[in-house]
Amino acid sequence: MKNALARAVIEVGFILFLFYANLLMGEFNRSGSAHSHSLLWAMGDVFTPANFAIGLVAGLIGYLLAELLRKRLQ
Fold first, then answer.
1. Is 22 or 28 the better-scoring residue by pLDDT?
2. Euclidean distance between CA atoms 8 and 26, whole angstroms
3. What is the rounded distance in angstroms from the CA atom of residue 67 to the CA atom of residue 57?
4. Residue 24 contacts residue 43 (beta carbons within 8 Å)
C-alpha cells in the first residue's frame, strides 16, 4: 500500500512537472508575453490555482490510465 501511494505521488508529480514546463515554455514562445517581461513574471502568470487544479486533474487521469494499462498488460 505504501509503495503504491509513493508511486502515485511520483507519477502525478511528474505529470504536473511536464504540464508546468509546457506552460512555461509557451510563455517564451514567439506568441508568448514573456518576451517583454521577466522569468519571474512568466512564473507568476503560469503558477495559478486554476492551472494547478487543471494539472492535478490531468495528472490523476494520466495515473489512472497508466495503472489500467499496466494491469491489462500483466
1. 22
2. 27
3. 15
4. yes
